[in-house]
């Protein structure tokens, strides 16, 4: 089911190394979040996965087959980027849909029509007349209605207003439930999207930081809140990500798995233990001197 | 819906447990599928599945292949047993801590409870 | 858990090639070409009438018109197709090799269609001139010497349009790849075009026409001329493939 194997992937743009020996595997059939800061190599990685670019070194195998110039595989991959990849922005939306439909064996025209309606796009409008947000929505629609077994969205939401973004996440989820496939969403609006992910891949400076199920990742730390002395005692010896204090109440975010014992200890001391938001973990893991 | 106080799958599991305890979900009744749960709450089906798996492991739910998830026979009894076992550490202990924190003598607390017991006896 | 039974249904085999791209391109562009051809014909006949009134009709005017303008049209259309459609086709799952094959079909069919229009134009001009009793001599520098030599007319315009369209396509692909590649393509692609035009004997419609003041191309056998044209076309196709075979599909900001 569109298993993705990336091995030692390397790509350089002149002097800059965009991908630096990147390796990971996706089982497929899940919704994956691809997180990384600007310049982390997210877009380059997705380009290579979609055979838009050839890597300088390493392999990309999808269901065991190399991707580049392999029609059996590329036919089943859809990469949607922030600007819609269409031949002519003078074209009307309906023409664009025809164009994409001719390439996509699983294209669902009825679904596309429903999506156009839901995102309030007029099929008779020319693409160049659309606002940035509406163009992004068009991209999202092309990606969703294509029902490609490997569908990737590279920050497709840019320019969309909040209601459109939430509609987009909802559609990804509900269509994935109805038509399971491998979906990769690259984003840095992490908190908004996190709950649709099953697994998360974090990359930084072209290398893998981690690849885990979301629950494992969010359990990697805790936010401890309570009376300052107790909180400090509890956090003693743990890796502290950040601290906040208001009067005598202190809130400390620590990195590290909380054992059942620690949970009990916190309860006994009257402390509140909460999971760490994915966003905070991401910031920590990709900052200078972040996790191993 | 969901807060960020604990992982989502735990909140789902707790909600199902609460429904069973309150009688909203009866024994041998079918529970919403993971996909229905996911679509309704707008979460990944795998998260719902994880919650269900926990409940299956605890003997609260069971799976009928090809049909779906059902509330186990005696689920309510099992839950009550768990809840009773953790009642003291989960509710009474924090109550004691809180009472001390705001300077309420434990005697007062006990008196309150005795009153409640008397009303129950009537 | 998640129903994975629909997975089997979703994994259909890729479709047989539907060749939508060259079909759409040929339809759109031949349609446009036909309209322009009609306009050109009307203008040429208008010029003939004007000459008749104020001077006299000396011979075919269509031979000049159709040898000086259409090749630029063909080159630019092919360049547009390369620059705009290459990234869009690849972005939606086609391979570069498939795109190149379909583009080749487009170039051949489009060139053939235009060659047909050029030939029919001669036929119409000949018929009109015959009715008006005007002479219909053909200028030097063509494969054909009279409008009746249909096979020679078709051959000349076919190889001309093949070569010009392939050059335009290669330059378009080059510029998509990078400004450097585009510049390099431009610097080199005109050579097979010039060679073909030299061989045919006309250099109309290109800056190369200035060379005629310096050197008159020798009259070659039509078969040799066609062979030179086809070789030039093949060279340009090879050059185009070199540019396309591993071309990266860029984001708008690159």
Description of the molecule:
The complex is a heterotrimer of chains A (about 290), B (about 120) and C (about 250). Chain A is an alpha/beta fold. Chain A has two domains: about 5-215, P-loop containing nucleotide triphosphate hydrolases (Rossmann fold), CATH 3.40.50.300; about 220-275, Alpha-Beta Plaits (2-Layer Sandwich). Chain A has helices at about 40-50, 70-75, 95-100, 110-120, 130-145, 160-180, 190-195, 215-220, 230-235, 260-270, 280-285; strands spanning about 5-15, 15-25, 30-35, 55-60, 65, 75-80, 150-155, 180-185, 200-205, 205-215, 220-225, 240-245, 250-255, 270-275. The longest helix of chain A is centred in the middle third of the chain and has 17 residues, at about 160-180. Chain A starts with a strand and ends in a 7-residue tail after the last helix. Chain B is mainly alpha-helical and about 120 residues long. Chain B folds into two domains: about 10-75, Winged helix-like DNA-binding domain superfamily/Winged helix DNA-binding domain (Arc Repressor Mutant, subunit A); about 75-120. Helices cover about 65% and strands about 5% of the residues of chain B. Chain B contains five helices and two strands. Chain B has helices at about 10-20, 35-40, 45-55, 75-100, 105-120, and strands at about 60-65, 70. In chain B, helix 1 packs across helix 3 (about 45-55) and helix 2 packs across helix 3 (about 45-55). Chain B is elongated and about 55 Å long. The model of chain B has no long low-confidence stretch (mean pLDDT about 85). By secondary structure, chain C is an all-alpha fold. Chain C has one domain. In chain C, about 70% of the residues lie in helices and about 0% in strands. Chain C has helices at about 5-10, 20-55, 60-70, 70-90, 95-130, 150-175, 180-200, 220-245. In chain C, helix 4 (about 70-90) runs antiparallel to helix 5, helix 6 runs antiparallel to helix 7 (about 180-200) and helix 6 (about 150-175) runs parallel beside helix 8. The longest helix of chain C has about 35 residues, at about 95-130. The radius of gyration of chain C is 22 Å and the shape is globular. Chain C starts with 5 loop residues before the first helix and ends in a 10-residue tail after the last helix. The interface of A and C includes residues 29, 79, 105 and 149 of A.
């Amino acid at each position: 089911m569109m298993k993705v194997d990336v091995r030692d992937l390397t790509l350089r743009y002149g002097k800059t190394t965009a991908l630096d020996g990147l390796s990971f595997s996706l089982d497929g059939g899940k919704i994956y979040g691809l997180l990384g800061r600007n310049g982390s190599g997210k877009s380059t990685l997705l380009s290579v996965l979609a055979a838009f670019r050839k890597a300088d070194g390493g392999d990309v195998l999808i269901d065991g087959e190399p991707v580049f110039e392999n029609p059996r595989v590329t036919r089943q991959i859809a990469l949607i980027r922030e600007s819609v990849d269409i031949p002519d922005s003078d074209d009307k939306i309906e023409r664009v849909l025809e164009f994409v439909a001719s390439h996509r064996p699983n294209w669902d025209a009825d679904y596309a029509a429903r999506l156009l309606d839901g995102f309030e796009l007029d099929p008779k409008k020319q693409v160049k007349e659309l606002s940035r947000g509406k163009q992004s929505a068009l991209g999202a629609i092309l990606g969703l209605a294509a029902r490609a077994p490997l569908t990737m969205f590279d920050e497709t939401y840019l320019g969309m207003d909040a209601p459109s973004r939430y509609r987009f996440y909802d559609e990804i989820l509900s269509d994935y439930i109805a038509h399971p496939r491998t979906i990769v969403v690259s984003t840095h609006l992490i908190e908004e999207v996190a709950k649709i992910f099953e697994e998360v891949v974090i990359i930084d400076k072209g290398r893998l930081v981690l690849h885990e199920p979301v629950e494992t990742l969010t359990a990697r730390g805790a936010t401890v809140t309570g009376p300052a002395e107790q909180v400090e005692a509890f956090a003693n010896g743990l890796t502290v990500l950040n601290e906040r204090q208001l009067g005598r109440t202190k809130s400390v975010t620590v990195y590290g798995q909380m054992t059942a014992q620690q949970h009990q200890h916190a309860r006994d001391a009257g402390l509140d233990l909460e999971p760490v938001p994915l966003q905070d973990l991401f910031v920590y893991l990709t900052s200078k001197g972040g996790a191993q | 819906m969901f807060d960020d106080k604990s992982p989502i799958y735990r909140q789902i599991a707790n909600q199902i447990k609460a429904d069973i305890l309150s009688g909203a979900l009866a024994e041998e009744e079918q529970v919403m599928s993971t996909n229905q749960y996911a679509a309704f709450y707008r979460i990944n089906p795998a998260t719902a599945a994880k919650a269900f798996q926990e409940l299956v492991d605890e003997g609260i739910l069971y799976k009928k292949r090809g049909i779906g998830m059902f509330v186990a026979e005696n689920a309510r009894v099992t839950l009550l047993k768990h809840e009773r076992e953790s009642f003291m550490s989960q509710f009474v202990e924090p109550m004691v801590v809180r009472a001390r924190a705001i300077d309420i003598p434990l005697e007062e607390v006990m008196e309150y409870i005795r009153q409640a017991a008397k009303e129950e006896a009537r | 858990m998640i129903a994975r039974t629909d997975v089997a249904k979703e994994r259909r085999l890729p479709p047989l090639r539907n060749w939508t791209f060259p079909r759409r391109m040929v339809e759109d562009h031949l349609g446009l070409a036909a309209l322009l051809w009609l306009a050109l014909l009307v203008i040429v006949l208008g010029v003939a009438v004007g000459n008749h009134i104020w001077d006299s009709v000396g011979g075919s005017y269509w031979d000049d018109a159709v040898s000086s303008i259409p090749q630029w049209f063909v080159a630019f259309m092919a360049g547009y197709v390369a620059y705009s459609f290459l990234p869009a086709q690849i972005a939606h799952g086609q391979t570069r090799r498939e795109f190149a094959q379909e583009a080749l079909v487009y170039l051949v069919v489009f060139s053939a269609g235009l060659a047909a229009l050029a030939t029919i134009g001669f036929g119409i001009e000949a018929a009109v001139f015959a009715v008006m009793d005007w002479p219909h001599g053909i200028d030097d520098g063509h494969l054909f010497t009279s409008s009746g030599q249909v096979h020679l007319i078709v051959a000349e315009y076919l190889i001309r349009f093949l070569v010009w369209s392939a050059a335009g396509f290669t330059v378009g692909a080059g510029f998509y790849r990078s400004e450097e590649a585009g510049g390099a393509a431009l610097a080199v692609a005109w050579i097979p075009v010039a060679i073909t035009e030299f061989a045919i004997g006309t250099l109309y419609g290109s800056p190369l026409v200035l060379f005629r003041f310096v050197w008159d191309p020798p009259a070659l056998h039509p078969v040799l001329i066609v062979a030179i044209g086809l070789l030039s076309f093949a060279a340009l196709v090879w050059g185009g493939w070199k540019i396309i075979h591993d071309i990266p599909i860029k984001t708008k900001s690159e």
